[in-house]
Amino acid sequence: MSTLAVMPWIGILIIAVTSYFLIKRKQTNMVLLLSGVAMLVVAVACGAPSFLPKGVKPTGFIGFDFFELLRSISIKQVSGIGFIIMAAGGFAGYMDRIGAADALVKICIKPLNKLHQPYLVMVLAYLIGQMLIQVIPSAAGLAMLLLVALLPILKGVGVTPASAGAVIACTAGLTFAPTAGTANLAAKIAGVDPIVYAVQYQWPVALVTLVAVSIAHFFVQRYYDKKNDEVYAEAAEIKKVLVEAPAWYAVFPVLPIVLLVIFSKFFVSGIKLNTVSALMLVWFVAVIVELIRFRDCKKVFDDAMVFFKKMGALFGSIVALIICAEMFATGIKATGVVDLLIDSSQNVGLGMAGMSVVLSAIVGAVTFLTGSGVGAYSGFAMLAPDVAGGLGGSTAALVVPMQFIACTIRAMSPVAGVVLAVAGAIGISPFALVRRTAIPMLVGTVCILVMNWILFI
Fold first, then answer.
1. Distance CA 200, CA 190 (A)
2. Angle formed at CA 394 by CA 393 and CA 399, multiple of 5 degrees
3. Tell me: the pLDDT tens digits for 329-358?
4. Which residues contact 262 (CB under 8 A, 6 or more apart)?
5. What is the mean pLDDT of the chain?
6. Are 147 and 168 in contact (CB under 8 A)?
7. Which of 436, 353, 368, 434 is CA-nearest to residue 401?
8. Cα separations (Å) of 263 from 203, 238, 260, 326?
9. DSSP-assigned letters across all residues of 161-229
10. Is 304 strand, coil or helix?
């Protein structure tokens, strides 16, 4: 057997070792980076063609080419999707600082006070949380907000803490806003505008899935409440403090999405508004409003700097992760693992439908074991264009379920940050919490795959 024939199997072995280290919760970025380099070394040793992407010239020395690849990936990500993610995170941080996020939550939960049906209130709370995650993209951050603002209301109408915690932990189960980082990454990979990706690909799948998950929550939480076998410990103190702000500040978090929808091909097609431009525009307007409101330059400017500080923090976490994940994906492609997947799927007749399930299952498994949906999705989403091209299908048909399932499975992982935060706040074990989130999220996962198959494959 030739070295080129053995190469994909060595790549699969390295992927298996990588998965082991991720399960053991080793530093994700460095594991992905070193695994990618290891696969590239294997590809070079086996005589594979150049691993440098199109447009990147070799340095003349193979040892330097590895770092030329890392440089080109870093520049591409920092100037592209990475900057969008940093801007979105910076905007969310600023909205939280000035109380706009808190104002939005308060307005959204007001209608719940008027209802007296515990499980109906609980389902509506889940739907409200799912809408809020579109403008407050941090799963753990939104959960802490909802634990402060929503948990007392749910308990007041008769919802048990465990049921309330289950729906709060699931509120980041679907992220389908054009300003969300993972949605922008998916749109970039699929080669479409973020708002087009959201409207044409995400929303049709998400709306049906939300209905299915809501129904599942209604019956699952009611069943476990009747069973009444949770053992409550002393709940952790919730340290999130609501920031007082005028109620109309709630318009700020949703304004970027409104602007992106208006200035798109769906309405005002003659004017193009970029996602980052929309975020920065609303941030700038909010700073001016804060100056008028407080007349205190030092306070307002210090608050405004949260935007940039949060951007820097996200570069060190999410953007660095995407850079390392693309290095990992490049190694997978260089060793021929993608070609092996495509050939194998064609031989057994999997096609696009089968590969969407396979890739989504891989992302879901890694998410469950590591608790990081972003890490799992970023690591494998880069493979979608090559797989779709080899099977003659749409890249969007692969990235939509991969992105959504990374979110649904995260809510089932007992090591996910959002699950740990909510479980600690309501005083039950993470395993007791995921027992309540598992069935609704599995229902959502199946619904995502079925709707994706019906609509796009």
1. 12
2. 125
3. 888 888 888 778 777 766 777 788 888 998
4. 268
5. 85
6. yes
7. 353
8. 18, 40, 5, 31
9. HHHHHHHHHTTTS----TTSHHHHHHHHHHTS-HHHIIIIIIHHHHHHHHHHHHHHHHHHHHHHHHH--
10. helix
Q: Give Cβ neighbours of residue 49 (< 8 Å, ≥ 6 apart).
A: none
| Nearest CA among 318, 322, 319, 397 for reference residue 360 | 397
175-185 b/e (C-beta count within 10 Å ≥ 16 → b): bbbbbbbbbbb
E runs forming strands in 362-456: none
Whether the CB-CB separation of 341 and 355 falls below 8 Å is answered with yes
Task: Give the integer Cα–Cα distance in Å for 245 and 247.
Answer: 6
Q: How far apart are the first and last CA of the chain?
A: 36
pLDDT by residue (tens digit) across 14-24?
A: 988 988 887 77
Amino acid, res. 316: G
Token couple for 164: 């309330």
Q: 217 with 166: CB under 8 angstroms? A: yes
Side chain identity at 224, as an amino acid letter?
A: Y
Do 398 and 384 touch, CB atoms closer than 8 A? yes
Residue with tokens 């309501």: 426
- Rounded-to-integer distance, Cα 104 and Cα 132, Å: 8
User: Which residue has 């492609």 as its token pair?
Assistant: 333
pLDDT band at 172 (very low <50, low <70, confident <90, very high): confident
Q: Report which DSSP code applies to 112.
A: G
Q: Answer yes or no: is pLDDT of 2 > 60.
A: yes
CA 12 to CA 346: how far, in whole Å? 19
Rounded-to-integer distance, Cα 76 and Cα 402, Å: 22
**Among 18-32, 272-286, 322-336, 438-452, which range has the highest average pLDDT?**
438-452
Q: Is the pTM of this model over 0.70?
A: yes
Between CA 53 and CA 382 the distance in angstroms is: 13
Inter-residue contact 163 to 122 (CB < 8 Å): yes
User: Which of the pair, 375 or 244, is modelled with greater confidence?
Assistant: 244
Euclidean distance between CA atoms 329 and 324, whole angstroms: 9
Per the CB < 8 A criterion, the answer to whether 20 and 365 are in contact is no
pLDDT at 82 over 60: yes
Token readout for 419 is: 């699950």
Helices and strands (H and E) in the chain: how many: 24, 0
Collapsed DSSP state (helix, strand, coil) of residue 119: helix
Distance, CA of 147 to chain centre: 21
